[in-house]
Amino acid sequence: MNITANEVLDAKGLACPMPIVRTKKAITNLDPGKVLEVQATDKGSTADIKAWSEGTGHQYLGTVEEDDILKHYIRRASDHETKEEKKFEHVIELEELQQKIEANENIAVLDVREPVEYAFGHIANAKNIPLGELDDRINEVESDKELFIICRTGSRSDLAARKLTEKGIDNVKNVVPGMSQWNGPTEKNIKKY
Q1: Which CATH number is 134's domain given?
Q2: Is residue 42 domain-resident?
Q3: Is 1 among the domain residues?
Q4: Hey, which residues are catalytic here?
Q5: DSSP calls for 109-125
């Protein structure tokens, strides 16, 4: 398949949130209707870019994988089609989440990172549902408890928190800045051979 883009953004080797940060900047330089190709190696970037596009009014056209490089295609919306990007309003700091965990409060932690990120270190008892699978696995979300959404930096969890709220789950909080700054105990799911 040969897809022609008007602009190519190299985000290879960058981890969340950098592919989105660079995409936001690059798309503002395009004329409405033009297509941006974002080249990335971060597996989580597919869900991130799709969710970001939907939230801002830009059209996510799809992703093609070639030689371990993900090529995401986004059509820039016209000014009247774009939506102001909103941040999820219910936020909790890492320290407050750690206090709730240490106090054994009846809460649920949803980790929306990719499985490999989760495997190398996660909060004990956190459920892993990657952002890109959230729509299909929403019935697995513990919506009867206070729900804390976490990712690496707070970006994917922000998107997930908004998505869950739109689906009618209203006891959600986004954890910032995320696992990149978590100082509490973690578990790993790594098999040694």
Answers
A1: 3.40.250.10
A2: yes
A3: no
A4: 16
A5: EEE-S-HHHHHT-B-TT
